[in-house]
């Protein structure tokens, strides 16, 4: 995708207010995050808000490192891995990236499409399979344009739609939520089951493919290199902060409705339907619209991130109009649509994706930490002591997440 340059004009304020951080935020606020935050609020009220606060700051820390890597070196994370390793180590690392990001995102794409379709079904009715096709077509058309500028603007708009829908619904139920501040600032686990839920909240926010996406996207957005670092940091703090706020709003909505009633849900779609008798049709419709936006954003970003990650790993140009990248993102989108329309859950592929991502997340986070401490690569832009402490904590948590995912896949958890 050729970089776009815009020195001014009527749309300059929009350009200054947007950036790849919004794509990252749009990517992690998917149906999985909506569902996990809903279940956390329904079961534990506001007591696990701290997990979302931690994961938001952890995401900011890792994404800042990825953005800095992209701007300083001009290389995406996949390309950095390819350059750093040699021989068998490079082969293993690249195979892991291609498998976890490429195949894994194909597996999760079905959930993204179905989540968005459930939102449309809840808001306006109609056939679920038809909505899967509609969302798939929208995602495909946007990716086919090959325009980073267009993708960025659509992501900003959809994140704002999600923010309005979820935050407005949370404000309505806020008086029913007990001690949200305590849940935010006092980490605790109400029972043994809360550990897995807290890990799930962190795992749906700190995701490996966003590191590949961000490192590649900053060079598209700020082709001037390190001069764009200040803008990139401001962009990611704002956008990821908004994303964290949206996730917290979803949790508080569930806490103030289903949690107060002692209810339980199995999905975010159940949440949208459950809101109607409690808060009225408006709140249920707003939540459904938010769920649609969450599904659509993830349905766009998952194929795009996979294409960029595979391109960097294999040495292809990071241009979404390149036929090889179109084959990657088109294949992922097609697989998701096929499973969604057929009504078949791609369980084996998702199990594989969980196992691969369980290995990839701590490995990628650790590799990123090593690279941004390398003066040969980063020069004066290496990590400082505070960034290393934060990065070390995040890598440790990532390792725990990876272990939990692997144990879950093996049936030991």
From TrEMBL:
It holds the Pfam family Nramp. InterPro entries: NRAMP_fam. The keyword Transmembrane helix applies. It is found in: Membrane. It is a multi-pass membrane protein. NCBIfam families: Nramp_1. This is Nramp family divalent metal transporter. It comes from Gaopeijia maritima.
